[in-house]
Amino acid sequence: MDRILIRGGRPLFGDIDISGSKNAALPLMAAAILTSETLRLSNLPRLADIASMRRLLETLGAEVVEVPVEDGEKGMVLEIQASGVKSIRAPYDLVRKMRASVLVLGPLLARFGQAEVSLPGGCAIGTRPVDLHLKALEAMGAQITIEAGYIRAEAPEGLTGADFAFPLVSVGATENAMMAAALAAGESRLVNVAREPEISDLAHCLVAMGAQVEGAGSDTIRIRGVGSLHGARHAVIPDRIEAGTFLMAAAITDGDLRLRGAEMAHLERPIELLRRAGTTVEETNNGLHVKRTNGPLVGTDVMTEAFPGFATDLQAQFMALMTTATGASMITETIFENRFMHVPELHRMGANITVHGASALVRGQQKLTGAEVMATDLRASVSLVLAGLAAEGETVLNRVYHLDRGYERIEAKLAACGAEIERLTA
Ligand code: UD1
């Protein structure tokens, strides 16, 4: 199994290209199931999760071809054609590896009137149920049963548009409901939906495919269903979580980075808190520029919230940053119940953190020291990379496959800015 070796203590200087968003790409790839024509997606990141979704689409019978980049495009470009779908079953083996596989449920049901998707089960950061996905689809007339670990959804007469208010904001459930509503008969009004940029990106792509979607980015989305959707071309938005992670990498190493392609509008709250903590973040003509303002970082409290609040996917990285600040900070996680697994690993690097329920008190100004640490999930693992970049001595990160699910060529991007980081292949 690969490991990553970091010799810490070097400030990062230079430019980093931000990749396409993994979390935007996954529902967009699933949306290809909604049409028999070709959906061409560009700016896809080369990541394990994208490969998993590709494998799932191919298992269902879709044809997925990587094609050369054309003028105006970047990243990986895939053409997905789901005319020959032969199976409506997403098997346990694939869903267990990547929970976002559940995003094929809405599109399969909407286009073929039936779907079978393995229940994802728990994961390292919490129980993560899919009840809201199912409730929204039931509101559109789906009959849903759970059999032998699989969600079986049927709508033999097709789905019908519905009014549905989500009791809790869910990104994935909003996406599944939007994709289903795009082909349902009549109008749907989805209330208390997620407002993440990935939702707006999905809406743009669905509109390019001929769907009638209004209100994405607000808390109510209206969709008038159409009889069929057609092919389209769509470029995936930049990855705001990757960009946010590199903002913090500059701050923790006292470096100076330019992030090409990063969007200020996707990162307003994290940037506000980073500024409060003592960094300068400015918009440039093609991205963001970040460096420390003056002197050390100062302890800053943060609470995770649905967008436009501070993303839970940046919480572990912010905690790593706060371990090196002056004074204390309180970090409260409100989205997932078990998202502090990075804490014991940060302890091994000398951090002083006490967890009380959903809050962690970080007493900063600790000198971090390199250690052998283990990744437990995607964002926890990158927080250990950040800590390793700031620490004295060597850090070895085990279970790098978590990192590979969500960060494209991270060691190459960091090394190009002066980090001493290398992948040790077993
Ligand atoms: C997405 C992101 C993930 C991010 C999360 C929150 C993707 C592929 N993943 O995950 O990186 O951390 O948003 O921003 O985009 N919930 C229920 N019932 C449901 C669905 C969710 O109770 O049916 C709960 C979850 O357990 C969690 C909260 O709602 O506590 C938010 O989860 P959700 O927004 O659905 O996260 P995902 O879409 O899984």
Structural summary, described in words:
Strands 22-23-1-24 form a 4-stranded mixed β-sheet. It is globular and about 65 Å long. It has helices at 22-31, 48-60, 92-97, 105-112, 131-139, 171-182, 197-208, 240-253, 268-276, 315-322, 342-348, 378-390, 401-404, 410-415; strands at residues 3-7, 13-17, 38-44, 63-66, 76-81, 89-90, 114-118, 143-147, 150-154, 163-165, 187-191, 212-214, 220-224, 232-235, 256-260, 279-284, 287-292, 302-303, 328-332, 352-356, 359-363, 372-374, 394-398, 420-424. Helix 4 runs parallel beside helix 6 and helix 8 (240-253) runs parallel beside helix 12 (378-390). The termini are close together. With 426 residues, the protein is an alpha/beta fold. The chain binds uridine-diphosphate-N-acetylglucosamine. Uridine-diphosphate-N-acetylglucosamine is lined by residues 23, 26, 100, 126, 128-133, 168, 170-173, 194, 198, 312-313, 335-336.
Provide the fold topology:
Blueprint: E1 3-7, E2 13-17, H1 22-31, E3 38-44, H2 48-60, E4 63-66, E5 76-81, E6 89-90, H3 92-97, H4 105-112, E7 114-118, H5 131-139, E8 143-147, E9 150-154, E10 163-165, H6 171-182, E11 187-191, H7 197-208, E12 212-214, E13 220-224, E14 232-235, H8 240-253, E15 256-260, H9 268-276, E16 279-284, E17 287-292, E18 302-303, H10 315-322, E19 328-332, H11 342-348, E20 352-356, E21 359-363, E22 372-374, H12 378-390, E23 394-398, H13 401-404, H14 410-415, E24 420-424
The structure holds uridine-diphosphate-N-acetylglucosamine.
Residues 23, 26, 100, 126, 128-133, 168, 170-173, 194, 198, 312-313, 335-336 line the site of uridine-diphosphate-N-acetylglucosamine.
